[in-house]
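Input for the complex:
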Amino acid sequence: MSIKPARTRIAPSPTGHMHLGTARTALYDYLLAKKTGGQFILRIEDTDIKRTVPGAEQEIMDGLRWLGLEYDEGPDVGGAYGPYRQTERREIYQHHAKILIDNKSAYPCFCTPDKLEKTRQEQMKRKENPHYDGACRVLTPEDAAKRIANGETYTVRFKTPKEGVTIAHDHLRGDIATENNQLNDYVLLKSDGLPTYHLAAIVDDHEMQITHVLRGSEWLGTFPLHVNIVRAFGWEEPIWIHLSVFLKPSGKGKMSKRETAQAMKDGYSIFIKDMQELGFTPEGVMNWSALMGWGVAEDDVMTIDQMVERFSIDGLTPSPAAINFQKLDHFNATHIRLFTTEDLAARLKPYFTCEGLNVNDNVLLKIVPLLRERLVTLDDCLAFGSFFFREDVTPNPEDLVAKGLDAAQSAEIARRAYQILAAQPDISHERCEPPLRAYVEESGLNVNQVFGILRAAITGQKVSPPLFESMEIIGREKCLQRLESAIRILEKI
RNA sequence: GCCCCCAUCGUCUAGUGGCCCAGGACGAAGCCCUCUCAAGGCUUAAACCGGGAUUCGAAUUCCCGUGGGGGCACCA
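Predicted:
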């Protein structure tokens, strides 16, 4: 069976931090494009100059690349359908606005924002739905032309049919019927000459030959308008897919400032840049967000390539999904365990070096297998494994005292352990573990007491990777040194 | 207020009229393994929003409620 290659696009506005919703939509766009052998495109929707924030566009591009969603066409990579930044496409929109005016689907409007606001207030007072009153809709083309020639500023509005019903088809939701009297004469072209989303997106999707429009369900309200615009141009419609929104963890409402701050406090975020810094992996983030809105029966741990393999727009779900950060942890940890040793080592190294630690690559390669199944986020490697790269450690004195024993008894155990270890020809775990276990046996102590002292002494931590494997990597000299200083600490208690 | 969308375990979901006394995953609980912490293995609890209708038969189709979400800008 041959599938038609799909052209999809992610079209974010550079108005803030790139968030999870954008990432998920981009993922589905990417999956569809790759699945069908088509193209995935980045288009920057920067027509609201006032809200554009510097750096946001770069963050989007960085974010997509970090996630592994390389786009085939975009502002910084070019393509046959550019430019890919809407502010660079002004003339295209003006030209198309003119086409709609000429074919009577749109008209110039000279109403001022003040006047608009006033009529809105009055309508609300009368408990009517706020809507444009149509004052300029009835202007003759000649009048309008004259006023334009006089230099009056104007917008261009879409001439929505007064009666009848607009039926728009969404691939997930079926036909959506809306009474035209519910629809406004929306502004297409603003008085600054730039288009609104409504015009820009429709024109660009057509010009860029987008076959599938995936976007958030917040666009459902103006969906009929968009369909009407496409039809006014006489163009073929793309397949429309309105994705569900993400809800806050409680499931009651969207993520607000409050929840975002709370998430950050718990070590989570809905911003891609933050997630990267918090030690989440692209694999984990993508797998996690893919499954909020895409139903997969079983074997839900997937790489992006595996997702491409299995993806279908028919599997997308229309219902809203509550964000569950625990599940992000799970996917992140699971993917970390799937990485090769070399790969994980390379990803972990920056965390150690950022701490100012001197990373020996051989040591790193050896500790990765010990760390791997203990990491939920990449930065967890610091808590578990930084002692491998330190000259010495400073154990908490109370951690050196074994449960049920006092300092003197613990010191005695440490001294015995020292003798046993010092007597070994090497410090391999095969060599060291048996005699120490024998000592535990004969002393009547339990392993937790003896190994606990050693763990604290040698790793400086209460919790660590397996003790004997760790000692082997640290090396005989350092281990004995650390044990010795632990003994001194114990003797001072 | 008006319009639109959605509705299966706490959460993400499978399910497209009989295979479902509803399957998987996260989380939870218990057990096993165990030098700490994990990982792993096994087990358990946990859902078809309510009411009508269609049908021999409904989680699955249709209506009506209810609940939740989104939208009603010269923002996207």
